[in-house]
């Protein structure tokens, strides 16, 4: 059984899944930080469904892009758990995991996450009889992302927290919005993507797996400016 963790956005989500079956999923958004919620949520979820750590055969984690702090919390927990429990670990790009919310939609999927300063993390995936990445991940303005998606042709369906934030612009451009329950990050979708990767031998080393930030944090940029002449 696979344990999946997604702390890449405002949503905290954990799930247990097997091939072709979602056993359970806990998805919530509270004012508490992910560092306060994650371990208790995992423990309670396992207890509620009567699953012991001995039954966990793999760990999946969202590796970014997304919240810098959230990603570090999720990755640290997943890497530690994988190492201690001695089970395979697989990191899944957050935008790819979001796309699995709309598996089989017969459309192109536009995952959108907040990159701050009116920018978004975005990519474009095909979700037809198979799934594939149509355009690479970027950190760019929402206007340029919409322009690129519209030029590509459709139908295009937007998912992710910024599908809500920029819904007026997206709808005006002819881009569809996923149903509300399919817009947020979900560990169940992450698990389905991870199971597919594990079947193809795409496990990661818990000692070397790194977050996919796409861009540097504001703190790193500021530090570099302050020490440019050092």
UniProtKB/TrEMBL annotation:
Residues 33-150 form the Gcp-like domain. GO terms for molecular function: transferase activity. GO terms for cellular component: cytosol. It comes from the Bacteria. GO terms for biological process: tRNA threonylcarbamoyladenosine modification. Pfam families: TsaD. Keywords: Transferase. InterPro entries: ATPase_NBD (IPR043129), Gcp-like_dom (IPR000905), T6A_TsaB (IPR022496). NCBIfam families: T6A_YeaZ. This is tRNA (Adenosine(37)-N6)-threonylcarbamoyltransferase complex dimerization subunit type 1 TsaB. It comes from Dialister hominis. The lineage of its organism: Bacteria, Bacillati, Bacillota, Negativicutes, Veillonellales.
């Amino acid at each position: 059984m696979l344990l999946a963790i997604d702390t890449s956005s405002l949503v905290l989500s954990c799930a247990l899944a097997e091939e072709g079956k979602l056993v359970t999923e806990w998805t919530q958004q509270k004012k508490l930080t992910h560092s306060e919620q994650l371990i208790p949520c995992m423990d309670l979820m396992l207890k509620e469904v009567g699953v012991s750590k001995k039954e966990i055969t793999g760990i999946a984690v969202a590796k970014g892009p997304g919240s810098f702090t959230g990603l570090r919390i999720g990755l640290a927990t997943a890497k530690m758990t994988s190492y201690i429990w001695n089970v395979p670990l697989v990191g899944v790009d957050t935008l790819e995991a979001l796309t699995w919310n709309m598996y089989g939609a017969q459309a192109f999927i536009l995952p959108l996450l907040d990159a701050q300063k009116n920018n978004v993390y975005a990519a474009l995936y095909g979700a037809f009889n198979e799934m594939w990445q149509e355009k690479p991940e970027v950190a760019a303005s929402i206007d340029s992302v919409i322009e690129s998606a519209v030029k590509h042709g459709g139908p295009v369906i937007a998912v992710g927290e910024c599908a809500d934030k920029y819904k007026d612009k997206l709808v005006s451009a002819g881009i569809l919005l996923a149903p509300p329950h399919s817009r947020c990050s979900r560990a169940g979708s992450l698990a389905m993507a991870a199971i597919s990767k594990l079947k193809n031998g795409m496990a990661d080393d818990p000692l070397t797996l790194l977050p996919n930030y796409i861009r540097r944090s504001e703190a790193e940029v500021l530090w570099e400016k302050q020490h440019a002449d050092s």
